[in-house]
Amino acid sequence: MEDPDYISGVTLLTYPARHMAFEHCSAAIVLLAPLADRFEDLNVAASHLLGYTRQELLTLPTARIFGHQLPDLMAFTQHAMEHGSAWSDRFTCQRGNGEDLPVEISATHLPFKGRPHLVLTLREHRGERGHQDKSRTEQTLRGGLIEWRDVLELFQENERGNQLLLSAVGDGIYSIDNQGMATFVNPAAARMFGWSVEEMIGKNVHRIHHHSHADGRPYPDEACPIYQAVQDGLVHEGRQEVFWRRDGTAFPVEFTSTPVLANDRIIGAVVVFRDITERRNTELQLQKALAELRTLKERLEEQNAYLQEEISTEHQYRDIVGRSAPILKIIHQIDVVGPTDANVLIHGESGTGKELIARAIHQASQRRDHPLIRVNCAAIPAELFESEFFGHLRGAFTGAVRDRIGRFELADGGTLFLDEIGEIPLELQSKLLRVLQEGQFERVGEERTRSVNVRIIAATNRDLRAEVVARRFREDLFFRLNVFPIHSPSLRERRSDIPLLAAHFIEHIGARLKLPGRRLSKGDIARLQGYDWPGNIRELQNIIERALITSRGKELNIDLPVSDTQVHQELVEPRKILTEAQLRELERDNLRAALEACGGKQFGKGGAAELLGIKPTTLASRLKKLGMIS
C-alpha cells in the first residue's frame, strides 16, 4: 500500500500539494474556455455543486448549465476578459437533477496556450439553502485514492497549466498536513499575508496569521477552527474572524477549512479564505446610511405631524391678493427682505393674513426648498414650551414615551414662523433668545448641544413696544426679532381690495363647494366696502362662504352682521321722531343716493332696484309718487 503522503514519488510539499489544494478545495473551481463554450477542467467541489460527474461536465456545453441566462453569461465573460476579473451574484445554474441553484461567480482572466480562459469560482448563494449535512459532507470528502490518482495523472500532463490555474484564483488557498504545517500556498494567499510562498511552506500557518483575535486576545492552536478540521474530520467555517498580515495589521475574513482524507485517515486540510474588507466597509456604510435614513424618517414623521393641517387642506389663497397702496408696499418689502436671512416681525390685527406674508417671504428666500414650520405660541402650555421647541428624550419627564424632535430642529435649514410671539411667558423668553443668538440648544433630558440654522419670522397682534415698556416682553428679544418690521394692514385700511378679495374667495370656495358661476352685484360690493370688518380677511372669507352656501341661484345673498359701532349708537342715542314730510324727504334722499350709486340705472343687473332690495315696479311707483319722475 502506498504512503498517502507520498504518491507516485512526489511529496505533498511539492507537486501533489498543489493538486490537493485544487482538488479538495471547498470552493467550486472551474476552468472555462469561453470561445469553445465548454469547461476544460474543474474540481470535485464544482462537480458536486453542479450535480454532474466530471466527465459529463467536460462534455456538456455551458449553455446546458446556464440555460436562459446564456446572454448574461456572455456579457459577464466579455467583461472579465476585458477588465481581467468580474463578479456577480445574479446567476442561476441548472443542476443535473433539474434544480435551479442560485450562485455567485468570481471570474479571473487567464490567457493560456494563446487562447483566453476564465477561472470561475462558484459559490452557492447565501441564504438559498442550509449547510450540507454531515453525511453528504463526508461523501464528498471521501473521494478515495483512485480518483486522486486519476486527477494527479491529469495534473501531471500539464503542470504549468495547473500552476496557472491555482495562481489565478482570487481567493486565498493553502493546505496543511495533519500537524498543521503548510504544504501548499497559492500566490493570492501569500500576497494577502505579506509573506512569500517559500517562507510559509513547512511553517505552522496558525501562528503566522491566526494567532490572535481581533481584540488582541491570544488564539490557541487547539481553539483554531482551521486546525479542528484536521482533528475531527469535519468542515469548519469562520464568518467573523480576522487574519494577520506580516506587518501586524489585520483584515476581516470568511474562510472554510475542509479536511482531506485518504484511506479513512485525515492527512490534512485545505483552507479557502476571502478578504471581506470591502464587503465589511460596504456593510458599515450601509448601516450608517440606514441609521441616517432612520433619523430622516423620524424627522419626516415629526414634520408630517406638525404640518398635517397644511398638507391635508388647501390654502385658502396662494398669493397675496390686492392692488391697494398698503399691499403694494408689502410686496415691495417681501422682494427686499425675502432673499436675505434677516429676521422679520409682522404686526397687525388678527385675521389680516400675517401667515400668508410669512409664506411669501419664505418662498422668496433661498430656503424655499426647506420646510416652513409654523408654531402657534399661544397654544403651547408653559410646561411644554421647551419640549415643543427643542425636543426631548424618552423618559425626560412623565409622558415622554419616546424621543421627539423639536420644532427648531425640524426647521433646520428652513424657516420657523412664530405666530403670536407676544403670548410667550416672560420666564421662557430667555431660552428662546439663546437659540436665536447662538443657534444652539439642548433637548430636554439631553446633555448634547445641537446646532441649527433657522430663519425666524415672528408675528403678533400686540404692540410689542408697549409690552416691553410694561416689562411683559424682553427688550433684547424684541430687538432680535424686529430686524425688519412689516405692518399687515387691516381690511379697513385697504377697502379698495375688497372686490378683488371677494371675487377670489367666490372662485376658490365655489370650486371647493362645487358652486361655480356665482357673482356679486354692485350693491353687494358697496355694502361690503361699507362694513367695518373687525375680523378682517378671515371674516370676509367666512361671509362669502356662508353666502355661497345659502344662495339659491347665481346671485349671492350677502348677510352682514350689525357692527359694534351701529349697536353702540342705537343704545346711546335717543330715537328721533320724524314728521311725515321728513320721512318723505328722507326717502327721496335715499332713492337719489341709490340712483347716483348706480349711475342713474333703475332696473336690471346693478340697478337701483337691486341695490335697494325692492322690485322694479315698486321702485317706479315710489319715484312717481314722490315726483321724482313723471
From TrEMBL:
> Which GO terms label this protein's molecular function in UniProt?
ATP binding; lyase activity; sequence-specific DNA binding
Q: Which NCBIfam families match?
A: sensory_box
Question: Which keywords fit this entry according to its UniProt record?
Answer: ATP-binding, Coiled coil, DNA-binding, Lyase, Nucleotide-binding, Transcription, Transcription regulation
Which SMART domains does the record associate with it?
A: AAA, PAC, PAS
Occurrences of domain Sigma-54 factor interaction (ranges): 320-549
One GO BP annotation is: regulation of DNA-templated transcription
Indicate whether Transit peptide appears among the record's keywords.
Answer: no
Q: Which CDD domains match?
A: AAA, PAS
Q: What is this protein called?
A: Formate hydrogenlyase transcriptional activator
Q: Which residues form a coiled coil?
A: 279-310
User: Sorted alphabetically, which PROSITE patterns does this protein's record hold?
Assistant: PAC, PAS, SIGMA54_INTERACT_1, SIGMA54_INTERACT_2, SIGMA54_INTERACT_3, SIGMA54_INTERACT_4
Q: Which Gene3D superfamilies match?
A: 1.10.8.60, Homeodomain-like (1.10.10.60), P-loop containing nucleotide triphosphate hydrolases (3.40.50.300), PAS domain (3.30.450.20)
Q: Does the keyword Translocase apply?
A: no
Q: Where is the PAC domain?
A: 237-288
User: What are the residue boundaries of the PAS domain, all occurrences included?
Assistant: 158-233
Q: What is the lineage of its organism?
A: Bacteria, Pseudomonadati, Myxococcota, Myxococcia, Myxococcales
Q: Which InterPro entries match?
A: AAA+_ATPase, AAA_lid_NorR, Homeodomain-like_sf, HTH_Fis, P-loop_NTPase, PAC, PAS, PAS-assoc_C
